[in-house]
Amino acid sequence: MATPTNPQNRPCGDGQEVGLGRFFTVKHRSPLHLRGVACKARVRFDVRLDFEPAFQKDLPSASGSNEALLDLSALPIGQHVIDWQYDSPVPIANWLTTTELIADEAVLFRFHKRADSQFPRDYGVLVVEVVS
Fold this sequence. Notes:
Layout: E1 23-27, E2 32-39, E3 43-49, E4 52-59, E5 67-71, E6 78-87, E7 96-103, E8 106-114, E9 123-131
């Protein structure tokens, strides 16, 4: 199964926001990933799937990567709630994050969030329906 790549090697905050709805339908066993990127900040990227903890990664990682990729390809048929947040142990100025939902190498959802946003709490929720 292919892992989505970032062919333009864009830093977070680049790229047009897409799919700003919150409900997406994907085919069963299609490659599906949630990608989180944090810039100008040290954060923990937490993801819950169907209200249960599913993934946690510190960004940047020990290797210096500011990106996390969660493989969701094994989701069973049905509706699933994916929620995430970026948390920092200390206040940070000028942070920036990008979150993407990627299916079959196509970005279905891309959202940028900045420290100077009107609502600066950095979290989100999506509903994904997996169909046969």
